[in-house]
TrEMBL record:
Gene Ontology cellular component annotations, sorted alphabetically: plasma membrane
InterPro entries per record: MFS_dom, MFS_sugar_transport-like, MFS_trans_sf, Sugar_transporter_CS
PANTHER family: INNER MEMBRANE METABOLITE TRANSPORT PROTEIN YHJE (PTHR43045:SF2), SHIKIMATE TRANSPORTER (PTHR43045)
Sorted UniProt keywords: Cell membrane, Membrane, Transmembrane, Transmembrane helix, Transport
Naturally occurring in which organism (per UniProt): Alloyangia pacifica
Organism ancestry: Bacteria, Pseudomonadati, Pseudomonadota, Alphaproteobacteria, Rhodobacterales
Annotated TM spans: 40-58, 64-86, 98-116, 163-186, 198-219, 252-276, 288-306, 318-338, 344-369, 381-401, 407-427
Source taxon at top rank: Bacteria
This protein's name: Metabolite-proton symporter
Membrane topology (UniProt): Multi-pass membrane protein
Subcellular location: Cell membrane
Length: 433
C-alpha cells in the first residue's frame, strides 16, 4: 500500500475504529522497533569487525576504523529527514500506514548492504554504495521510532503512559542482543577469514525474515484513538513541520538536549567499547561480542524498572536522578576501561543499567510537549536531532580523544553531555519532559 493509498484509506471523521488490545499494541510497537534496531546495530557491529577491511583498506588500521565510523554517522544525519517525511504523513494520514512504510525503507536498505561488492571488487564505488544504504537505514529509522512510541502511548490507559511508552524502547536492547548474538554465533561456526569473505552478509540478508514478521504484525492493528480524535475534531494541519518549527521551537531544542546524554552514553558503551575491546585491549571478537550481549541484557532489564519507577515517582524526577548518576559514572571511565576484562564488565554493567533507566523514559518524555496534530513529527525530530548531536560522532570522538588524550577525556565527554541534559531537564516545565 502506498502512502497516497493509505491517505484515502484513513478513517473517516466520526468513524469509531476498533480498539486495539493492549497485547496487540505493545507487540506491534516492540516488534517493529526490535527489527529496526537489529538492522541498525548489525551495521554498527560490522563497522568495527569487517567494514574497515572490506570497504576502507588502509595501511593504518586506525584510519580505516575512523573511516568506517564516519559512514556509521551518516545514518544519524539522515534520520531528521526521515522524521520530517514520515512525520508529515504520520500526522496527516495516520500512524499505522506510515510505520509500515518506514519499516520497509529500513529493511530494504539493510538487505541491499548484504549484497554489496567490496572495495577490492569495484573500488571507490563500494564505500559510496555502503554510505547510500546507511543513509537509507537512517532515513527509515527516523520515521520508525516516533510512530512506534505514539502507537504505544496514544493507546495507553490513564496513568500508564510511562509503562506503555517503555515497550517500544525495549526494541533497542533486543535488537542489540540479536545483532551481537548473530555475529557471535557466526564466529563460533566459521573462521574470521570466512566471515570477511561471505559470512558477514548473513545478518544483513536475514533481515528479510524479520521484515516479513514486522509487516504481518503492523498490518493487523488499527489507528490510535488520539489520532482518530484529531480527525474527528478536524485538528490536522496541512504541513505539520511548518507549525512545529513556528510554534514549538523551544520544545524541539530542549527535547534534543534532554536526550543528549542518553545517546552519548549508549554509543560509548556499545560501538566505541566494542572497537576499544578489539583494537586496544586485543580481546577476541567472540569475547568482545559476549560483553556486548551481556550489556544488552542489562540494558533491557532496566527499561521496565524505569517505567515502573516513573509511574510511582514521576518521569521527570527519575530522568533527573539518572542523569546525575551518568555524570558520576563518567569519572569511572578511566578507572574501569583498562586492559582488564573484569573491570570492562563492570563498566558495561553500570553504563547499560543507567542506559536502561534513561532510555526507558525518553520516548514518552520527548512526545509529551507536542499536541496530537504535530506529535509524530515533533517527537521524531527531537529524537533524531539528539542522535546527530549525541550519537552520530560519539564513537569517532571517543576514539579520537582516547588516542590523543587518554581515557579520562572520554569520561569528560560523557560528563559534558550529562551536564547539558540536566540543565535542559530543569529548563523544561513540569509535564514537558
Amino acid at each position: 500500500m502506498s502512502l497516497s493509498d493509505a491517505a484515502h484509506a484513513a478513517p473517516r471523521a466520526g468513524a469509531t475504529p476498533a480498539l486495539n488490545s493492549p497485547a496487540k499494541v505493545l507487540t506491534a510497537s516492540l516488534v517493529g522497533t526490535t527489527i529496526e534496531f537489529f538492522d541498525f546495530y548489525v551495521y554498527a557491529t560490522a563497522a568495527v569487525l569487517v567494514f574497515p577491511a572490506l570497504f576502507f583498506p588502509s595501511s593504518d588500521p586506525m584510519t580505516a576504523l575512523l573511516a568506517s565510523f564516519a559512514t556509521f554517522s551518516i545514518a544519524f544525519f539522515a534520520r531528521p529527514f526521515g522524521a520530517l517525511v514520515f512525520g508529515h504523513f504520520g500526522d496527516r494520514i495516520g500512524r499505522k500506514a506510515t510505520l509500515v512504510a518506514a519499516l520497509l525503507t529500513m529493511g530494504i536498505s539493510t538487505v541491499v548492504i548484504g549484497f554489496l561488492p567490496s572495495y577490492e571488487q569495484i573500488g571507490v564505488i563500494a564505500p559510496l554504495l555502503l554510505a547510500l544504504c546507511r543513509f537509507g537505514q537512517g532515513f527509515g529509522l527516523g520515521g520508525e521510532w516516533g510512530g512506534a512510541v505514539l502507537m504505544a502511548t496514544e493507546n495507553a490507559p490513564e496513568g500508564k503512559k510511562n509503562w506503555y511508552g517503555m515497550f517500544p524502547q525495549l526494541g533497542a536492547p533486543l535488537g542489540l542482543f540479536l545483532s551481537s548474538g548473530l555475529f557471535w554465533i557466526l564466529l563460533h561456526f566459521m573462521s574470521e577469514e570466512a566471515l570477511l569473505s561471505w559470512g558477514w552478509r548473513i545478518p544483513f540478508v536475514s533481515s528479510l525474515l524479520l521484515i516479513a514478521v514486522g509487516l504481518w504484525v503492523r498490518l493487523s492493528i488499527t489507528e490510535t484513538p488520539d489520532f482518530q480524535k484529531a480527525i474527528d475534531n478536524e485538528e490536522r494541519v496541512a504541513v505539520p513541520a511548518v507549525e512545529l518549527f513556528k510554534n514549538h521551537k523551544v520544545s524541539i531544542v530542549l527535547g534534543t538536549f534532554v536526550a543528549l546524554a542518553t545517546f552519548v552514553l549508549f554509543y560509548i558503551c556499545t560501538a566505541y567499547l566494542l572497537s576499544y575491546n578489539v583494537k586496544v585491549v586485543k580481546i577476541p571478537f567472540t569475547d568482545a561480542l559476549a560483553i556486548q550481549i551481556w550489556g544488552s541484557v542489562v540494558f533491557g532489564a532496566f527499561i521496565p524498572l524505569a517505567g515502573k519507577l516513573a509511574e510511582r515517582f514521576g518521569r521527570r524526577e527519575i530522568l533527573t536522578l539518572t542523569t546525575i548518576l551518568i555524570g558520576v559514572f563518567s569519572f569511572l571511565v578511566p578507572v574501569l576501561m583498562v586492559e582488564n576484562e573484569m573491570r570492562i564488565m563492570g563498566f558495561v554493567t553500570l553504563g547499560m543499567a543507567l542506559m536502561g533507566m534513561t532510555y526507558g523514559l525518553i520516548g514518552t518524555a520527548l512526545a509529551a510537549p507536542f499536541p496530537t496534530r504535530v506529535r509524530y513529527t515533533g517527537s521524531s525530530i527531537t529524537f533524531n536531532f539528539a542522535g546527530i548531536f549525541g550519537a552520530s560522532l560519539a564513537p569517532y570522538i571517543a576514539t579520537w580523544l582516547q588516542s590523543n588524550y587518554g581515557l579520562a577525556y572520554v569520561g569528560y565527554y560523557v560528563l559534558f553531555a550529562a551536564a547539558i541534559t540536566l540543565l535542559c531537564i530543569f529548563a523544561s516545565g513540569k509535564g514537558k519532559v
